[in-house]
Amino acid sequence: MNKPIKQLAIIGPTASGKSDLAIKIAQKIDAYILSIDSLSIYKEIDIVSAKPSKEELSQVKHFGINVLNPDDYFSVDVFIDIYKDVKDLCEKEGKNLIIVGGTSFYLKSLLHGLSNLPIIDAKIQAKVKKDLEDLQSCYDLLVSIDSVYMKNISQNDSYRIEKALLIYEASSLSPTEWFKQNPPKPIIEKLDIYNIDVDRDILRDRISKRSHKMLSMGLIDEVSYLEQKYTRLPNSMGSIGIVEVLDYLDGKITQDEMLELISIHTAQLAKRQQTFNRTQFENITSAKLEELERLLT
Length: 297
Known about the structure:
Blueprint: E1 7-11, H1 18-29, E2 31-35, H2 54-59, E3 62-63, H3 76-93, E4 96-101, H4 104-112, H5 122-131, H6 135-145, H7 147-150, H8 158-171, H9 175-181, E5 192-196, H10 200-217, H11 219-230, H12 242-249, H13 255-279, E6 284-287, H14 289-296
Helix pairs in contact: 5-8, 6-8, 10-13, 11-12, 12-13
């Protein structure tokens, strides 16, 4: 029987020092690191995502980084599968686990869980695939069946329309009714969560410096390469740092304006992250980076 492992999470806004702290703690408690970052999971998006360097990645075994191509589908259910695999590996190899990153929604999903989906056989899959050839009709049908569920789904969101249609065809229930009858179950029952509390002015300064560092590291070349290889269509190409560079490449803004907008939009993201972290978790320890480092190391 595998020995139970110690798990903890380190969260905080972008540019708050999470990665460095996680590596220090991981080395002390013999842990692997699982990244919860919606951009670092993609290969080739290196500078924009500010993912750990090769040297940092070599110090401690990391997961959830460089897993998918930028045009691959990714959502929280993919992340949960990654978490389950990493946890099994930690138990097998006798390692602890540190979950770290800025996309705290994924962490909340681990604590709250996802609902199971109905059994979807090949016949239903084939029918739905054929129906989806007329996406608008599928959308209209779902709105007539379940307007509440569909109110936040765009009529062009083929993935979520397909998911809703599969649920309906496989269960004969509206998505709302299905999820009501099949509530989510937590994947992690209990977890110590440590949140890095950063003064807003300090954070803005760090974000500005990081934006300039990204430029010197080859930000524009990276985004140009990504656009050539993957086009602008994947969801990952709508990320902060990519959108502003694309506007610069289109001649809409100057390089100075590009850097300023990256900093502004990143600071706005950091503010949203801080609000989410403060309001969405129970039993959370919030402190300055130095205090958390003393506490955990």
